[in-house]
Structure formats: structure tokens, C-alpha cells
Amino acid sequence: MAKKFAFRPEYNALIAFALSLLVLAVFSHFAKPVAPPKSPGPQTSQSNSFPGAASLPIAQSSSPAATPAPIEAIQGDSEKSITIESPLYHVEISNHGATARSWQLSKYSDDKKPPRPLDLINANTAQQVGAWPLSLLLQDAALQEKANSAIYKITPDSGTITAPVDVTMQWSDGHLAVQKTLKFSTDYVVDLTVSVTFDGKSIPVGVAWRGGFGDPNVYKASQLVTVFYDTGNKLNLLTYKKLGVSSQQQIPAQQPGAMIYAGVEDQFFAAAFLADPGTGVALWHWLEQHNVKGDGGAISQEPVEEIAAGTISQEPFHSRMYVGPKDITVLGHLNPSLEALVNFGYISIIAKPLLEVLKWIHGFIPNYGWAIIFLTLVINMALFPLKIKSWRSMQKMQRVKPQVDSLQAKYKKYASNDPRKKKLNEEMMELYKKEGVNPVGSCLPMLLQFPVWAALYRTLGGAIELRHAPWILWVHDLSSYDHYFILPVLMMATMYLTQKMTPTAAAVDPVQQKMMGLMPLVFGALFFHSSSGLVLYILTSNLVAIGQQYFLNKTEPLPPPGPSRKR
């Protein structure tokens, strides 16, 4: 009979302990704790209406991961807008994207009939590109789309408000939170603060001016709209051909360095982000395209210059924003100064005083056309003593002309590279010294007047004071060209008459004489599309020159050339 197996008592505790370990191991394998879901963070997706948004730097954090504190969801109850007014501007702000929809300058009008206050925001273009000024540029395209399409809670929430006033716009979906604060003052400067956080952490942000800028009539000529910036107290300009990255010009390009200011301008107006003292702003720029309907109905594409200014850190972005005219007095009072935007070029040392003198004259003669004429009379009368000196120099040249002709005939047989040809110049200089003749004396007035002409070309062609400033009859805008071309034609005619009235001290080669006769036509053609103010200055100068030349011809005529004297 088989022996029955039985557990010995001392083994019972050991078996129970082994079974417990086995049950614990099996339970641990099949019953792992479920990890808590991660909250969504900033992504790098670029599938959005604004390609290349990831060009903003990605914020990095060295702190250990932690569960974010809950953020209250904030949004507006419906789409609405408010209007901020001052004697200088009329600005409409929409809570849809917390963007500007109209930025009118009360003291400047457009070219429509009847004229209306000039709006620096081109609404048709902004609707085409789907973006407006004060929209955001974020590192993540999906977050950017949310921020720029959201309905914000806006305070004050409706109506028309008189500056100074603070406007606050807030929105949050529980993770992404945006707050924009605009402090409107009574001048052209708006204090701007923008804060963007994700799960309570600040992320880099740029504030853009999109949808085009400036006078709509100038805006159609895209080459006149320019992006500008200042690094190291040096103004830099970027034309539309230099915006964007390589051929993909819809992708923002970041301009290296921290900018003292940055913005976009046309001929007479500017929108600029001004950095706080001791800091700087980052600049991005790019192009978009919009459709333009021509006179014949044909559709063409025009580039739209767009910029964004912002931070490259996680701090809220703060800047002062200037939106207004390129008035040298107004720009000079800003900090930092934007006076360099009124670009007088290398001749600014003369152009700036001339502009101030013209404005001073306008205080007594409240018509810029007549003020230009008065300034022209003053300048020409101031230069008249030099013209008299030049005339007397021509008289001396006329007296020595026979001896000069004799010397030239004497050395005519020698080639120009013959050492004996140098003797001609020596003898001519000796003759001029003996007779007290200055060979370049007759050119002195023209040399002195050229910088004045160049300065007035800069001043009268770009001074906003002449924009829409009328003179008489058909001249309604001294900053624009004469659409009937009456002033350029009169300028050419008076220039030709001045040339005919002015005798020369020496005989002129027939070919050279024909070329000189064509000069008024060539010169006039160059000024057919110049500002009416500049052409009016030249026309007035010609009329004064005719009167002065008539006086000199009557009182001090040039002596008739005598026969050549052989030496």
C-alpha cells in the first residue's frame, strides 16, 4: 500500500510565503498604474494660413515638469469694435483678433472726391491677405491662428471714446492666454504691451503690421513702400525686393540685431515700433501678394510689405508705436528720434534750414506756392552779386580772347601728348595772371547754386507740408507733378530764353551749340514728373535770371571781340 504524503508543519510557512510572492508578481504585471495625460504644449506645426511662423525662437525651460495651474477661459460674447478719437486721429479697434481695422489721420485727406480723412490701413488689401495691423506672430502656427481669430473681451466694450484712454483686450482658451493693452495719448504715439502665455509660461511674441500701409494712391506703387530700421543710430532701408527669405518671400526673415526702432513707411507717412531706452526690438519682414484691378479691368498682383516687431525672450513685449506723418518737427520730438525718416540725403545740412525757412515764410504768406516764389526771389537776389562777379569775369575773358586764340593757333600743330603742348598751358596761365582773369570765375554762381537746387529738390519733393498744398488754378498739390504739364513747358521755354540772352566769352563749336540748344528740352523732360513745387522754383529762378541778364546786357555789355594779336 502506498505511503500517504503529508506536509510537515515546518514547511507550511515557507509554502505560504512563496505563494504570496507569486500572487504579488502577477498582480504587479497586469495592474500597472495608468500615467496621467499630458497637457498640450506649443507645437511646431506650420500648416496654417501664415507659413513660416516657426521662425520665432522657441522658448526653452530648464525647470522640472510640473502640473500647470488651471487658467480661466476668457472670451468676448460677440464681435464688436470701439473707436478712439483725438484731434489727430480716428482709430477703430475690433475685438475679432484684437486688431486695428481703421487708422485715420484727421489732418490729412485722401484723393477721393469728396476727400475723406486719410486711412493708413488699406482695408481691401487686409481682407485679401486675411490679416490686419496689431495681429500676432507666434512660434506655433496653430496657436497663432487661434490668437488672431479669437473674439476678445475688450474694455471699454463699445462706443466712441476720446483719448487719452487705455484699451485692454483679453482672451484665453484655458491654455493659451493673450492680453493686449493699448494706451492712446493725444499725440501720434500709442503705448503697446502684449503678453502671451501657454499654461502660465510666457512665450515669445511679435506684433505685426499687416495688410499694407500708407496712402492708397502711393501704395499701388509698391516700390515706394519701404521697411526701415535703426541699429547703432544708423537708418537702414529695405525695399520690397529685399524682404523675406530667398524666393519664399511669404516666410518672415528676422533682421539680425536689436533695433532701436523699426517700421514701415511710404513717401509721407510711417508706422514705427520704438524700443524703450537701453533696450531693443526684434524685426521680422516678409511679402504677401494681393490682386490689383487695373484701369482696363485686368487683374495683376502687387507685393504687400509686412513687418513684425517683438521679443526674442519669454517676457511680455512692450513698445511705443508711432503712426503718423513724416513731419520733421514731430519726428524730432520722439525718443528715439525718427527725424532721419525725412531723408534729405547728403545735402541735409542745407535742406533742413531751407525747409525751416520755407515754413517760417508760410507763417506770413499762407500759400506754399507763393512762399516758394518768395524764397526763390530771396535766394536769387542773394546770389546776384556773384552773378555780377561772374559777368565781369566773362568781360575780361572776352578782352583776352584774341591772345588766347593766337596761342592756340601757335601750338595747334603739336599732338596732345607732345611735351611742347604743355607750353601752351603755361603761356595761357601767364596771360590770365597778367590780365587778372580767373578762368573759372564765370562758373562760380552755378557751382554755388547747384547745392541749393539739390537741397530744394529733396525739400520740395518730400516735405509733407506740400502734400495737397494748392497754389493757383490747376495746381492743387505742390508735392505732385503738374498733370497738365504747364509748369514744365514754361520752365523749358524760359530756360531756352535765358540761354539765348546769355552771351558766351568765346566762340562755340556748332555741334556744341546744337547740344546746348537741346539742353532745355532734356532738362525739362527730367522734371516732367517732379513735384510742382520744385518746378515752380526753377521756373521762378529762370524768370529772375531773364530779368537780371537783361539788366546786365543793358548796363555792362560784353565788349566785341577784337582781332587776334600775334605774340
General description of the model:
With 567 residues, the protein is an alpha+beta fold. It folds into two domains: 53-59 and 69-343, Beta-galactosidase, Chain A, domain 5; 359-555, no CATH class. It is 34% helix and 23% strand. It has twelve helices and 20 strands. The chain has helices at 9-30, 123-129, 141-149, 216-219, 328-332, 348-362, 368-410, 422-435, 444-462, 486-501, 510-526, 532-555, and strands at 81-85, 89-94, 99-109, 117-119, 135-137, 153-155, 159-162, 165-172, 176-184, 189-198, 201-202, 206-209, 226-230, 235-238, 253-259, 261-265, 269-274, 281-293, 299-310, 317-325. The strands form three sheets. Strands 6, 8, 9, 10, 11, 13, 14, 16, 17 and 20 form a ten-stranded antiparallel beta sheet that branches. The protein has a five-stranded mixed beta sheet with strand order 4-3-2-1-7, with no helix packed on it. β8 (165-172) and β9 form a beta hairpin. α10 (486-501) packs parallel to α12. The radius of gyration is 38 Å and the shape is elongated. Mean pLDDT is 78; it is low at 1-55 and 57-65.
Number of domains: 2
Report the CATH topology name of the largest domain.
Answer: Beta-galactosidase, Chain A, domain 5
**Helix count, per DSSP?**
12
Mind summarizing the main beta sheet? 10 strands, antiparallel
Mean of all residue-level pLDDT scores: 78
Number of strands: 20
Q: What percent of the residues sit in helical stretches (DSSP H or I)? A: 25-40%
Helix/strand-derived category reads alpha+beta
Q: Just name the CATH architecture of the largest domain.
A: Distorted Sandwich
Low-confidence stretches: 1-55, 57-65
Percent of residues in β-strands: 15-25%
CATH class division of the largest domain: Mainly Beta
**Gap from first CA to last CA:** 167 Å
- Shape descriptor reads elongated
Compute the CA-based radius of gyration. 38 Å
